[in-house]
Input
Amino acid sequence: MTGQIVFDPLLPWVAIYALGAVALAGVILALWRGLNGWPLRFVAGLILVAALTQPSFQEEDRAPLSDIVLMVVDQSASQRLADRLSVTEDAADTLQARIEARPNTEIRRIEVGDGEGDSGTQLMTALSTAMAEEPRGRIAGIFLLSDGRLHDLERAPNLPAPMHLLMTGRESDWDRRLVVKNAPAFAILGEPVTLTLRVQDDGAAPGALQTRLDISVDGAEPQEFTVPIGEDVELPIELPHGGLNVIRFSTPEAEGELTDRNNAALVQINGVRDRLRVLLVSGEPHAGGRTWRNLLKSDSSVDLVHFTILRPPEKQDGVPVTELSLIAFPTRELFLEKIDDFDLIIFDRYKRRGILPAIYLENVRNYVEKGGAVLVAAGPDFASADSIYRSPLAEVLPAEPTARVIDESYSPRVTELGERHPVTAGLGDPESWGPWLRQIELEPISGDVVMSGVDDRPLLVLDRVGEGRVALLGSDQAWLWSRGYKGGGPQLDLLRRLAHWMMKEPELEEEALWAEATGQTMRIIRRSLNEDVGAVTVTRPDGETEEVTLSEVSPGRFEALYEGPEIGLYRLSEGEEEAVIGLGPAAPREFEQTIASGEALEPVIDTMRGGVMSLEDGLPSIRAVSAGRPAAGRGWIGLTPREAYETMDVRQIPLLPAWLTLLLASGFIIGAWLREGRR
Output
């Protein structure tokens, strides 16, 4: 039980001060005039002014509250290295027992694991959450049992009591880590991209000067290099293919190092083409003659060389062709010497007329077989005796003309196979497409018919020849869609997809397997022209395999979600299709720095004069220290007793009740009057 005097003034303190000043002035006046009752007047005024403050004696019944100690136990991945976790658990149990044995003291144990994703160790976040649940006035101390490697220091709260770091790890610890300093998300095919790497030894390292560096692309057999330790190394790498390239860098585990989890890094770079070179050969002029040119020129990534024949075939005036050219066209240079520089050759209503000799067209056929691409947009010329089919190109074309030209209105349709092919899948509602007015009758020889026209006759046929690709469009009417004829159609999407499929863009492969990663979850995607696909075999970083069954989500597209149990390189295979993908960051934050250190926490700990102690030296003793005093010393750490309490009952007794105030004031005033009246 404790007591104190409290005041509950009847008037504002300013008014009470003013009345007191008036009473004092009256006393001074009486003294100046020589009235011998001025002391009695002074006492009477003092009583009246004091009565206005209503003084009371307050008694409180208090129940003492215990002090609270917060103990944050770090159980993140870096704490599972060597014997850190067992040392931490033993120290936490001993410390908890010591604190519970102290009188009037409670402990709150907060265990912190790995943060979500790659957020690292969130010690300060956990501490802030714990402090929000406890009265700050009762917190007597904070203990952190950790290696000192945290990733949310900016969230450190204002401390109400000393904080101490009891640090795991040993002075002899050392670790080797691989750091990728810069890695672009995209790189141009055919051009080297420079990556900067560094192999760094931390802690009590043995002092090696060099180590082996293994580099593997898409899970292939790694290439070995020798690199210096502690120096930046610039590696020029040329991507082997378009799309996602997964590059793994690794160094072998050295004897005695803490972990090999940071000895490898995954870099995923998308290979893109710098410029796509297209040769467009336009034959007989027609209303849609600029369709291909406008499409290709609108794509900033395409370099277009356009060879067009403007002289109508019916004009026979005997003038040599070479004399009609505004600029002599370098046919020999293009079709013999530099043909391999092109990614795609388009023949738009071209027919044999002596401008391109058979040897040039034979070279085009060889170009296709070696990996090139040819697209033929056929008009009536394709069905004539001068058809380009009557040339060496016939050996690579997927369909043969019957010599029949169908001149009637029809609506192009995507075939059942075309619904599964990436060139024609999902083009929109065919019912809204406008009609075309001409079709060349074709007899398929090979390849895939993805669009049909009159009476389901083949309209668009795609094929692979050798290492190259060929497409045959049996109509010259695609331009009607671009003009919006009777509603138009997806002409831009169709022709652009067609051109990019022929140039082997990875996202348009009809048989493909790949995965898209989000954190530790990958979406496995298999695209196929078949109606069914087998299960995908997933090979984890530890070498274990697992079968994943896919479900068809749209025609020709099969998907499944897979949760990767660990960070690293995963291999996927289904039939002849293979893919690799890396899950997790290039280097997990938990293993970026593994040597125990209190350097990061020292600025926060110093605000309340706490300390950093190594558990390798033993568990320090606990002392009680006053607020503001040093809270750590050699072999000891301190708690600040808060002496908090809970008020159970309050009683107030007035010191100047009204009757007593009236009696005393009246007595002194009358006494002063009587004394002054005898004078």
